[in-house]
Specification:
The protein is of the alpha/beta class. 42% of the residues lie in helices and 19% in strands. The strands form 3 sheets. It has a 6-stranded mixed beta sheet with strand order 1-2-10-7-8-9, with helices on both faces. The chain has a 4-stranded parallel beta sheet with strand order 5-4-3-6, with helices on both faces. α1 crosses α7, α3 packs across α7 and α8 packs across α10. The longest helix is centred in the middle third of the chain and has 17 residues.
């Protein structure tokens, strides 16, 4: 099947009443940083928390119209699972989702909450996929997360919405995993407005599209751990690849640190909760695309917001640390009444906010009449951190920065 703009326009009609038209919002923070007009396409606010619902609805509606079958199966570790489960429930189709045994508990609960039968199988997605294919042989209709033209057409409706809301857009930056979202979005954008620039973004941990462009064909790469687990796809889809090759201007890679920083900026600057994959377009805009000619109006696609809270609790402090906003210290104190109070008073006068404090009286390397205090301090940035350190040392404290 050769995908066309008409397929995407028809997919948009099928999504009416099910798929939300997500907002395109102006970001003052990103615009001020770049001297451009920067907008965020908030698919994290989509029903089920990601763009995946778009493709699932289109594929399942067409399947039902053609009478292909009455039950569906999908394999996913997260967003695709929820998209298929919700779409199937809406269309009153039974759905079975196979997830790896280590899939996050919150995503398991969400998938079950949308009415799907959940099977936990295998240690990774490839093993879950194998089990789903076995069910396909038993009469289920398998719904691929990205390597299916009808799924791609559904994802492409995001591009139509961008152009309708911002006709003068110059550049759109979109995440790339298996390639379904980027393929559909770039086709819709370029067919309606050929002069628009569409740039794909991948994590440097799993550069499958970059490898495919280099080799001229989909080429497997190692699937190394990444914050952007939603685009942790080691082989670009065979259906998306020719579309991406035709319509994408380029693909850029971002580091894990850049992803974490972008996630924090979105959360702090715009109160947008993005998952790792949803933050990569912003990471690219602030990193490898920072000094590039992107035109006057730029759209960054926030593709999803289904981040696990325990992961968020680890990512935010790490990002603050990298930005110089979190100072971690060990301070040796005389073990006498009032010593800790004097230390915290000094820190308060310097404007440092104490996030955590651990009082350790058992540090063997210290004299018996001394104790150690470990502190996590929130500061305004590197300069403020240096001021706090100087104040402590000037006051005679033995201070050691924790790595």
């Amino acid at each position: 099947m050769s995908l066309t703009l008409k397929d995407i326009e028809e997919a948009k009609e099928r999504q009416t009443g099910v798929v939300l038209r997500t907002p395109l919002i102006y970001s003052h923070t990103l615009s001020r940083l770049s001297s451009r007009e920067v907008f965020l396409k908030l698919e994290n606010l989509q029903t089920t928390g990601s763009f995946k619902l778009r493709g699932a609805v289109n594929r399942l509606k067409l399947m039902k119209e053609r009478g292909e079958g009455d039950k569906v199966v999908a394999a996913s570790a997260g967003n695709h699972a929820q998209g298929v489960a919700f779409a199937a429930a809406y269309l009153k189709l039974p759905a079975t989702i196979v997830m790896p045994q280590g899939a996050s508990i919150s995503k398991q609960l969400a998938t079950r909450g949308y009415g799907a039968e959940l099977i936990l199988h295998g240690q990774d997605l490839s093993q879950a996929l194998k089990r789903a294919r076995e069910l396909e042989a038993e009469g289920y209709i398998f719904i691929h997360p990205y390597d299916d033209p009808e799924v791609i057409a559904g994802q492409g409706t995001l591009g139509l919405e961008i152009l309708e809301d911002l006709p003068a857009v110059d550049t759109v930056v979109v995440p790339v995993g298996g390639g379904g979202l980027a393929a559909g979005t770039s086709l819709a954008l370029k067919e309606r407005k050929p002069q628009v620039q569409v740039i794909g973004v991948q994590t440097a941990q799993v550069p499958s599209l970059a490898a495919a462009f280099k080799k001229g064909a989909p080429t497997p790469v190692p699937a190394r751990p990444t914050l952007a687990d939603g685009i942790q796809v080691p082989l670009i889809g065979r259906h998306p690849f020719p579309i991406l090759k035709k319509y994408l201007s380029e693909v850029v890679l971002v580091s894990e640190t850049e992803i974490a920083q972008a996630l924090l900026l979105l959360l702090e600057g715009k109160k947008v909760l993005a998952e790792g994959a949803g933050a990569v377009a912003t990471a690219a805009f602030l990193g490898p695309l920072k000094n590039r000619d992107l035109g006057k109006q730029v759209v960054l696609v926030v593709s999803g917001g289904n981040i696990d809270i325990p992961l968020l609790e680890r990512v935010v402090p790490r990002a603050l640390l990298e930005r110089g906003r979190l100072l971690t210290l060990r301070v040796a104190l005389s073990d006498r009444p009032g010593s800790l109070g004097r230390l915290t008073t000094l820190l308060g006068k310097q404007g440092a906010n104490i996030l955590h404090l651990f009082h350790d009286r058992l540090a063997r390397e210290l004299p018996l009449d001394y104790t150690r205090v470990e502190l996590n301090l929130e500061t305004r940035g590197p300069d403020h951190s240096e001021t706090v350190l100087k104040a402590l040392k000037d006051a005679g404290y033995q201070v050691e920065e924790k790595p």
